[in-house]
Amino acid sequence: MKSLFTPLAPAALACALAASLAAASPAALASAAVGQPAPAFTATDTIGRSVSLADFKGRHVVLEWVNPGCPYVQKHYGAKNMQATQKAATDQGAVWLTVNSTAADHRDHMAPAALAAWMQTQGAAATATLMDESGQVGRAYGARTTPHMYIINPQGTLVYAGAIDSKPSANPADIATATQHVKVALAESMAGKPVSTPATRAYGCTIKYANAGE
Question: pTM of this prediction?
Fold first, then answer.
């Protein structure tokens, strides 16, 4: 049987190193606070529609930051873990918004049509895929990595922020033994219970924001 794990190429290793350095260094980003109102936003999706958080008042909303060039994103999409998590959420009535905050001048940037095609090829079950080339949405939430995950409850309160799961690696084999933080947190919130682990450390590649040096 062909292994799901592929050794990281030099570019992927550089991405992983940058991510670990970002986790250890102060980030020049604000952080949306769990237990507080989620920052409002409006962005354009990959087919040109305007999408606002306010459009989904009264529903659970999951936010997922994505960069198809990131090996950590490839881990979860290649193993179909992200798609399964998306489908489980949307089947229960949640809204899933995938956000790409990669700057337009970065080599990992994908045009809206290309990103839409990639999501379709992956079999993604997101409600919409949003373009955030200015980084406005990502910075409002303090999103640092791909993936970086957030859950907003029907009252508009942020109830989870952090990693998709508990195994911060790029190895798909780790998914099976990981605690699926997003699935657990969403199930608890949908059941009207407090989220038992409302915040975790996100892991992945650093988001390639525009004017990142500012």
Answer: 0.87
Tell me, yes or no, whether 214 lies in a domain.
no
Within-domain flag for 176: yes
> What does the pLDDT read at residue 100?
98
Confidence category of residue 31, pLDDT binned at 50, 70, 90: confident
Phi, psi of 43 (to 5 degrees): -145, 165
Rounded to whole angstroms, the Cα distance separating 74 from 68 reads 7
Q: pLDDT per residue over 157-202, tens digit each?
A: 999 999 999 999 999 999 999 999 999 999 999 999 999 999 999 9
Structure tokens belonging to residue 30: 């604000």
- Please indicate, yes or no, if residue 194 is contained in any of the structural domains: yes
Nearest to 82 by CA among 102, 101, 62: 62
**Region 47-54: what's the mean pLDDT?**
97
Whether residue 177 is contained in a domain is answered as yes
Q: Which CATH number is 181's domain given? A: 3.40.30.10
* pLDDT of amino acid 163: 98
Q: How far, in Å, CA of 148 to CA of 15, rounded? A: 15
The first and second tokens of residue 116, run together, are 């839409």
Category of 50 on φ-ψ map: left (φ > 0), alpha (ψ -120 to 50) or beta: beta
- Which DSSP category does 146 fall into? E
99: closest CA among 60, 58, 141, 71? Answer: 141
Alpha-carbon dihedral 54, 96, 169, 131, rounded to 10 degrees: -60
Whole-number Å distance between alpha carbons of 1 and 19 = 31
